[in-house]
Amino acid sequence: MEFPGVGTGVCRRKFRPRILTAGAWRKPEAARGRRRRPPALSGVVITVFKKIMKKSGSLFVVSGPSGVGKSTLVERVRRRMPELAFSISCTTRPPRGGEINGREYYFLSQEEFEERSRRGEFIEEARIFTNRYGTLREEVVRRMDSGVPVLLDIDVQGARQIRAAAAADARLAAAVVMVMIAPPSLDTVERRLRGRGTDSDGQIALRLAAVRGELANFRLYDYVVVNDDLDTAAAELESVFRAAALRTALIDGGLFND
Questions:
Q1: Is 12 a member of any domain?
Q2: Strands 89-91 and 131-136
């Protein structure tokens, strides 16, 4: 390889490229196998400045009515994005077979749940039949502050409470991204519900009415992902999560912190 010299004449010194790694010179792949001593770096000082950007984690809120395949979709994305922390909710219902306190849920008594609710410890809570469910604010904020993205799988009622909390908290507002999982049609939901074989016609009619009610709240959310094809829906949901993690609103302070 030839390089023009400065002034008169031409520099014809052969140039053998090296790749700089941490503390050493390494030959390119094509040049390996020939044993040569690395060139001396006499008088050359190489300084590497490590610029660290401090970012908060996103808070991803995912909702979807019964029968849209939300749980399967979320699990598919979580396998692709292991960095997502799935928030553990509190509940007053008793543990079911195989469930462990602190893994599936934090199982609380009615009295303890009520006391925590009175102290404002829940970022969202809901009553479903005779049981109560809630997400601890500290559980979410602690992870977000450490830069970990948090995923909440909650219903429309809980999502509305998250939106209200974000309106009163600038840091939370910067972190929240809300996604509704929708079916391609109500007929698809009905087929899925009947395919389960667990509900009567009357129960299915009630569930379909509930689905219509939940889907009517779609403008509460930032994104709608239609779960028609699982692979396509998973790719779209993952794209939302990955793009949201790059938002400038999550950067604390300057772009580079020396």
A1: no
A2: antiparallel
Structural domain tally of the chain? Answer: 1
- Secondary-structure breakdown of the chain: helix, strand, coil percentages, each rounded to the nearest 5: 40, 20, 40
Q: Which residues of 183-222 are buried (b: 16+ CB within 10 A; e: fewer)?
A: beeeebbbeebeeeeeeeeeebeebbeebeebbebeeebe
3-state secondary structure of 108: coil
d(CA 173, CA 188): 34
Distances in Å between the Cα of 130 and the Cα atoms of 2, 126, 152, 189 are: 82, 11, 22, 26
- Does residue 251 carry a pLDDT above 50? yes
> Which tens digits make up the pLDDT trace of 178-228?
999 999 999 988 888 888 888 889 989 998 999 999 999 999 999 999 999
Where is 178: in which H helix or E strand?
strand 176-182
177 domain residue, yes or no? yes
Task: Please check whether residue 188 lies inside any domain of the structure.
Answer: yes
Please tell me whether residue 59 adopts helix, strand or coil conformation. Answer: strand
Quick check: is 4 in a domain? Answer: no
Q: Report yes or no: 182 and 218 within 8 Å, Cβ to Cβ.
A: yes
Q: What are 242-247's contacts with CB under 8 Å, separation 24+?
A: 242/81, 244/58, 244/60, 244/177, 245/58, 245/149, 247/58, 247/174
Quote the DSSP letter at residue 234.
H
- pLDDT given for residue 198 in this prediction: 83
Q: Which backbone phi and psi does 194 adopt, to 5 degrees? A: -70, -30
Cα distance between residue 146 and residue 46, in whole Å: 32
Here the CATH number for the domain that contains residue 198 is 3.40.50.300
Q: What is the pTM of this model?
A: 0.74
Q: Which domain holds residue 153?
A: 59-250
